[in-house]
Design goal:
single chain, Rossmann fold, alpha/beta
């Protein structure tokens, strides 16, 4: 690969028009003056393998080189059977959110959601203080998997997965191991008394979705509350938590931080997450 060739990466999903990733990566490409482009590709699960293969030749026809892609809903699990190699991060979490083309032309699947979550927490609090503590995770989807693994790596000794589908909660707890357990959805409020960190990984509370119904009365004042929703940026859960004195962390930080590793792998520059980037991406939210 010639260093003079334009490097192309992007994001795939179905749908994909809502994605903030092109705005985010485009900011970094301009900031660091790179000969690169980040695109958005609408791709259905059954089209993923064909699209990844086609992009190598399509980019070459442009005189450019395909470097890889982010994956969002509903492609993160489909990618397991499509990529050539799975990074340990993807294997452990059970999902792929970043694909990188290696020097031999093979596709490696990675997952950067967990480190993105941890780095966003670290901006607001001392994450080492969570070791030995209890987490309550609402939801059992792909993001929940990454966050549960990240919390286990931080040393939490009790990770409670609370989901509307009990079977999915039990499956995720089994995947994480001995430190995790499933709990019924109707116990979500009473379980807060034990929690040192509460993480909403559901779509409840997102714009256009039903509200998240949960009583925060039993939540310790020292507990951290995180909501991976970022539309709206300040969900009702975060507003209520902040009013009673809890540290409240929105979902935008995770989005920004999970993007760093992919950008570096594709374009060879380690990017910085700073206030200017956050403002730039927030402007995109306001305009959507």
């Amino acid at each position: 690969m010639s260093e003079d060739m334009k490097k192309i990466a992007g994001v795939m999903g179905w749908p994909i028009s809502h994605s903030l990733s092109p705005r985010l990566h485009g900011y970094w490409i301009e900031k660091y003056g790179l000969n690169a482009e980040y695109r958005a590709w609408p791709v259905k699960p059954e089209e993923l393998a064909q699209k990844l293969t086609a992009l190598k030749s399509d980019c070459a026809a442009e005189g450019a080189v395909f470097r890889g892609t982010n994956l969002t809903i509903p492609l993160k699990e489909t990618a397991f059977d499509v990529v050539d190699t799975l990074d340990p991060s993807a294997t452990r979490i059970g999902a792929v959110n970043t694909v990188v083309l290696d020097e031999k032309g093979g596709l490696t699947g990675r997952n950067t959601d967990g480190i993105g979550f941890t780095d966003s927490l670290a901006e607001e609090t001392d994450v080492t203080a969570l070791s030995g503590g209890t987490a309550l995770i609402l939801g059992a989807g792909g993001a929940s998997r990454a966050i549960a693994v990240a919390l286990a790596d931080l040393g939490l000794s009790d990770i409670i997965i609370c989901n509307r589908s009990a079977a999915r909660a039990e499956a995720l707890a089994g995947h994480i191991g001995d430190v995790a357990r499933a709990a019924p959805w109707d116990r979500r409020s009473s379980l807060l008394e034990k929690a040192d960190i509460l993480v909403n990984c559901t779509s409840l509370g997102m714009t256009g979705q039903p509200p998240l119904e949960i009583s925060l009365g039993g939540l310790k004042k020292t507990a951290i509350v995180s909501d991976i929703v970022y539309v709206p940026l300040e969900t009702e859960l975060l507003k209520r938590s902040r009013r009673q004195g809890n540290i409240a962390i929105d979902g935008l930080g995770m989005l920004l931080h999970q993007a760093k590793a992919g950008f570096e792998a594709w374009f060879g520059v380690k990017p910085e997450v700073d206030a200017a980037l956050r403002t730039h991406v927030l402007d995109g939210l306001k305009g959507s």
